[in-house]
Write a structure and sequence with these properties.
Blueprint: E1 3-7, H1 11-22, E2 27-31, H2 34-43, E3 48-52, E4 54-55, E5 58-59, H3 60-70, E6 75-80, H4 85-94, E7 98-101, H5 106-136, H6 147-160, E8 166-169, H7 176-185, E9 194-198, H8 204-212, E10 213-214, E11 226-227, H9 229-232, E12 237-241, H10 248-260, E13 262-263, E14 272-273, E15 277-282, H11 286-291, H12 297-303, E16 306-309, H13 320-334, H14 344-352, H15 358-372, H16 385-388, H17 390-396, H18 402-416, H19 421-428, H20 432-441
Parallel strand pairs: 1-2, 1-3, 3-6, 6-7, 8-15, 8-16, 9-12, 12-15
Antiparallel strand pairs: 4-5, 10-11, 13-14
Length: 444
C-alpha cells in the first residue's frame, strides 16, 4: 500500500486531508511540524510527503532539499496558503514534485498524489534493479578461491579505482567480460554506461560504423545519423572484446581516439569528443602479433598500460566445484525445478576434465545436465562422452607424458585459430591429415 506522510501544523486541515486521502486507499500518517515529520521518515518508509510551506520550526521549501538528500526515493508535494512564484521555483529546484496552493488547487491534490506515488515507485524499482545489477557485476560475482584467480581479482580491484586502460588476456570462455564489468562497476564511472563491442563479430566496414558511428547519407542505407559505441560510452566505459581481430586500418583510428579523445563519424568531417575508459580483451598474444606486423605495436603499447591475465579453468580446477554449484542453482531456478542432488562421480568427472572451452563450456555442460536430470540427480551418464571418459584417460596418461603435452598443444592452437584446422596444421607444421588423425586419437 502507498504510504503518505502529511506535515501541517493546522490540526483540522491536516485531519481533513488525512480522511480524504485515506478514502482513496492510501496509508496516511500525520505530523504537526518538520522535526517530528523527519523523525517519522527515519523510522518508517513513505512514498510521498505532503508538506506545508510555513511551519513553526522551519520552511517547507528548505525541508525538501534536506529530505531528498537523505531519502532520494521520496516524492514531496508542498502546500501553501499563498501562491508565491519565487518559492514555487525554488521548491522545484530543490526537488519537490509539485507546489499546490491551498483552496485554489484542492482538486489537484489526489491526482498529483497518484502521480507522485507512481514516480516514487519507479524510483525504487530502478534503484533495486541497479543494486541487483551491481551485485551481478561486482567482484563478488567472480567465483573461485584458487591462487591464480585470486591474483587476477586482486589486480583488477586495484586498477578499477583508477582511470587507466586495462588489457585482459585469456582464452575464450575464461570470463574476461565478467572482469570488465566488475572493473567498471567498481570505478568512479560505475553509474555511467558500460558499452561492449566484440571486434570479431563484424566485417571491417561494419565494425568501423559501429565503433565510430556514421552521418546520414554516408553509405547506402544510412537514413539518419547514428551514434557509434565510442560516443555511446561517453562518461563511462568502452569494452572492446577480441581486439586482436580488429583490422589494422581501424587500429590507427582507434589509436588517435585514445590519444586525443577525438573521433569522426563515418561520412562526416567534424571531429567529436568522447571521454571514456577503455578496457580491451583478447585471446591472442598481442606482443607476438605486433612483432610479426599483424597488430600495430604503438596501439599494443597504448593498450598494455595495465595487463591482467585471466587463468584458464584447467589451471584452477579447485574452483570447478564452486562454479558447478553456482550454475546448478542458477539453472534449477531457471527451469523452475528443485535443485538436483550431485553424485561424487559426477563431481569427480568435472574436476578431472581439462575444460578446453573453460567456464563457458562448464556452464553449458551444467545447463544440459540439469535439464536431463532424473530423480537420481546429477550422475555421470548425463555428461558428454569426453568428460565421462576423462577420469579414465587421466589415470592412464600422465600429465607429463609426450602424448598429454601434444594433445594440449593441439587444443591450444585450435582455440587460437577458432577451430580453423588448415591454419592450425600450418602453425603446428604438420599435414592436415595428420592433424585430423591426432584429433581423432585425442578425441578433440
Amino acid at each position: 500500500m502507498t504510504s503518505i506522510l502529511i506535515i501541517d501544523d493546522e490540526e483540522k486541515l491536516r485531519g481533513l486531508l488525512a480522511r480524504i486521502i485515506k478514502s482513496e486507499g492510501f496509508d496516511v500518517t500525520e505530523a504537526p511540524d518538520l522535526k517530528s515529520g523527519f523523525k517519522k521518515l527515519e523510522i518508517q518508509h513513505f512514498d510521498v510527503v505532503l508538506c506545508d510551506v510555513k511551519l513553526p520550526d522551519g520552511n517547507g521549501v528548505e525541508f525538501v532539499q534536506k529530505v531528498r538528500s537523505v531519502f532520494p526515493d521520496v516524492e514531496i508535494l508542498l502546500l501553501t496558503a499563498f501562491g508565491n512564484i519565487p518559492d514555487g521555483i525554488q521548491a522545484m529546484k530543490n526537488g519537490a514534485f509539485d507546489y499546490i496552493v491551498k483552496g485554489d488547487d484542492n482538486d489537484r491534490i489526489i491526482p498529483l498524489l497518484y502521480k507522485a506515488a507512481e514516480k516514487a515507485g519507479l524510483r525504487q524499482q530502478v534503484r533495486s534493479l541497479k543494486k541487483q545489477l551491481g551485485n551481478t557485476h561486482s567482484f563478488d560475482a567472480i567465483i573461485g578461491k584458487s591462487k591464480s584467480i585470486a591474483a587476477s581479482v586482486d589486480l583488477a580491484q586495484k586498477v578499477s579505482v583508477t582511470d587507466s586502460t586495462v588489457l585482459l588476456l585469456g582464452e575464450t570462455g575464461t570470463g574476461k567480460e565478467v572482469f570488465a564489468h566488475a572493473i567498471h562497476e567498481n570505478s568512479k564511472r560505475g553509474d555511467k554506461s558500460f558499452v561492449a563491442l566484440n571486434c570479431s563479430a563484424f566485417a571491417k566496414d561494419l565494425l568501423e560504423s559501429e565503433l565510430f558511428g556514421y552521418k546520414q547519407g554516408a553509405f547506402t542505407g544510412a537514413a539518419r545519423d547514428k551514434k557509434g559505441f565510442i560516443e555511446e560510452a561517453h562518461g563511462g566505459t568502452l569494452f572492446l572484446d577480441e581486439i586482436g581481430e580488429m583490422p589494422i586500418e581501424l587500429q590507427a583510428k582507434l589509436l588517435r581516439v585514445l590519444e586525443s579523445s577525438e573521433f569522426i563519424r563515418v561520412g562526416d568531417t567534424v571531429p567529436k569528443k568522447s571521454d571514456f575508459r577503455l578496457i580491451a580483451a583478447t585471446n591472442r598474444d598481442l606482443k607476438s602479433e605486433s612483432e610479426q606486423g599483424r597488430f600495430r605495436s604503438d596501439l599494443y603499447f597504448r593498450l598494455n598500460i595495465f595487463e591482467i591475465r585471466i587463468p584458464p579453468l584447467r589451471e584452477r580446477l579447485k574452483d570447478v566445484e564452486a562454479l558447478a554449484d553456482f550454475y546448478i542453482g542458477q539453472f534449477s531456478d531457471k527451469i523452475n525445478r528443485s535443485r538436483p542432488a550431485v553424485s561424487e562421480e559426477f563431481l569427480s568427472a568435472l574436476q578431472t576434465y581439462s575444460w578446453p572451452g573453460n567456464i563457458r563450456e562448464l556452464k553449458n555442460v551444467i545447463e544440459r545436465s540439469v535439464i536431463l536430470a532424473s530423480d537420481e540427480g546429477l550422475t555421470t551418464d548425463l555428461l558428454p562422452f569426453e568428460i565421462r571418459t576423462s577420469e579414465n584417460r587421466s589415470s592412464t596418461v600422465s600429465a607429463f607424458s609426450i602424448a598429454s603435452a601434444e594433445k594440449l598443444q593441439i587444443q591450444k592452437v585450435l582455440n587460437y585459430t577458432k577451430n580453423n584446422k588448415a591454419e592450425a596444421a600450418r602453425l603446428l607444421e604438420i599435414g592436415i591429415a595428420t592433424l585430423y588423425r591426432k584429433m581423432e586419437e585425442y578425441k578433440l
